[in-house]
Amino acid sequence: MGWMRDETGLDKCAANYVPLTPLSHLRRAADVFAGRIAVVHGDHRVTYAQYYDRCTRLASALAAMGVKSGDVVATLLPNTPAQAEAHFGVPACGAVLNTINTRLDVDTVTYIFDHGGASVVLVDTQFIELAEAAAARLETPPHVIEVPDAAAGFPATGRHPAYEDIIAAADPVFEWHMPQDEWESLALNYTSGTTGRPKGVVYHHRGAYLMTMGTVVSWRMVLHPVFMQIVPLFHCNGWNHTWLMPLIGGTLVCARDITAKAIFDAIADEGVTHFGGAPIVLNMMVNASADERREFSHLVEVVTAGAPPAPATLGKFEALGFNVTHVYGLTETYGHVTECIWREEEWGTLDKPARAAVKSRQGVAYPMMEHITVLDAKMAQVPRDATTQGEIMIRGNSVMKGYLKNPSATQEAFSGGYFHSGDIAVQHPDGYIQISDRAKDIIISGGENISSVEVEATLMAHDAVMLAAVVAKPDDKWGEVPCAFVELKAGVEIDEATLIAFTRETLAGFKAPKRVVFQELPKTSTGKIQKFELRKLAAAL
C-alpha cells in the first residue's frame, strides 16, 4: 500500500498542463467554428475566422505601438465590435484590458487613466471629447485610437488614428501572448463606488476562464446560442459573456443603445436566444408600447442581476415569453457567482406571485465557486431560518486578485478567508440566499430594521409605478423613516396618500413610507438607482 507516495517524474509539462485563459476559446473557435457568424452589429457581420483575424491584428497593432506585457490598454466604448475585439486583442499582446464606464465625468476618467496607467485608449467618437479632456490633464496621456460608428451617427473626427485603418495595416500573423501563469492579470475594472474614488479591481485569466465554464453549465447553454450583449462591457466585462461565446460557437449581437425596440427587434430579426440585463431592462420591456414590441415564437433565456428584481416585474416579464434566472455578484467577483436554480418538483405548482417571489432570491453558488454563505459579524454561519440577517461571504475561483495599489482595502475585503460583499442577507432552510439590503441601505426606524428592498417590491406591485427607490429620511422622533421616490408610468396619475395606503395593505405600519416623492430616478450607466443622490434629497425634505 502507499505506492502513490512516490511521484517521481510525475511533473507538470507542456503536454499535461496549460494555464487557463479565456483567450483559448477564440483560438479554438477560429478553427472549429471558422465559418460561423461570430459578431453582428448592423451591417457588420464577421465569421469566427474573421473575428480571430481582427483580434490578432489589434494585438499586433498595439505591440507595434510599444504596448508591452503588463501594460494597461483602456477603452471608452459602448457595446460595439471594437469593444468585443479588445477583450481578446488586448490580452493577446500581453496587456491588461481596462474598460472604462462611458458615463463617468472628466475628473473620474482622468483619475482612472492616471491610476491605471493606460498607455493606449480606444475611444468611440461619441466619447472622444471626454477622452481628450481627461488626457489633457495628464503629463503622460494615453495614445488615443478613435473608433467611429458612422451608422450610429458618429463619423470620425479625423483628429486621431482610426481603428479600422490600424487594423487593416497590422500584421495578421502576429503570435498571441498566452499567459505563462493563469494568475497573470487579464483585466482592470473600476468599481462604480458611490463614495470616494473608485477602486481598481484586478481579474486574472483563471477566474475569467472558470467563469465562462460555470456560466455555460448554470445557464443550461448548448452549441450556437445567439447572445445579445446588453450588459455594458465596461461592467464586469459584461459578466464575462463575450469571453464565453466562442466556447460554444455562439453569435454575439452588439447592443449599442439599450432600448426596448432594439431588444425586441434583435429577438425577432436575429433570433436572439439569450441576454443578461439589470431589472431596469426587464421593467423597460414590460412597459414597452405596442409599436416597440415584436412577436417571437421561441423562449428567450434571461439572467438578471444588479438589484433585487421586484416579484411583480418578474411575473409580467415571464408572461412575454422569457425565462428569467436571477443571479448575483459584484465587480469583485467577475459578475454573477450565485444563481437561483429553479426546483420544478418543489415550486412548479406555485401560483404566479409565489413563483416570482421565489425567483427573486439570489440563490446558491455557481459551480466554479467554493463556498458562498451568510455569516454574522464574528464570521459564524447564521441560522438558515429565512429571518436572521448576516453578510454574504464569498470564496472561490472567480474572486478578484485584489484592489490595484490598495493593499489595505484588499486585506480588509479578504479578512477571515472570504470576500466580504457588503450585502446583508438571510438564508432559507434550503440554503438559498436572499438579500435584505446593502448594509448602507437598511433603514433603522425606532430600533427596527426596515429593508428598503421589501418596501420597493411592495411599491412596484402597484400598476401605476414604473420604478421605486426607498431611502432613509432623518426623523426627530424615530431617528429615520422610509422615504419613497417613485417614477410613474407615462400618462398615469396617483397621489401620495393613495400609494402610502396601498403599501400599508401588505406592510407593517412602521415599514410603510412616510413620504412619497414623484420624480425621475437618478441612475448609473448600468441602470442601478443612485440612492446616495436620493438620500441627499430626502435629508433636504
TrEMBL record:
Domain AMP-dependent synthetase/ligase intervals: 27-404
One function term, GO molecular function aspect: ligase activity
EC number: 6.2.1.44
Family annotation (CDD domains): ttLC_FACS_AEE21_like
Top EC class of this enzyme: ligase
Gene Ontology BP terms: fatty acid metabolic process
Domain AMP-binding enzyme C-terminal, residue spans: 454-528
Entry keywords, A to Z: Fatty acid metabolism, Ligase, Lipid metabolism, Magnesium, Metal-binding
Superkingdom classification of source: Bacteria
PROSITE patterns xref list: AMP_BINDING
Cofactor(s) the record lists: Mg(2+)
InterPro entries: AMP-bd_C, AMP-bd_C_sf, AMP-binding_CS, AMP-dep_synth/lig_dom, ANL_N_sf
Reaction catalysed by this enzyme: 3-(methylsulfanyl)propanoate + ATP + CoA = 3-(methylsulfanyl)propanoyl-CoA + AMP + diphosphate
Subunit structure, as described in the record: Homodimer.
Family: Belongs to the ATP-dependent AMP-binding enzyme family.
Name of the molecule in the record: 3-methylmercaptopropionyl-CoA ligase
Organism listed in the record: Sulfitobacter guttiformis
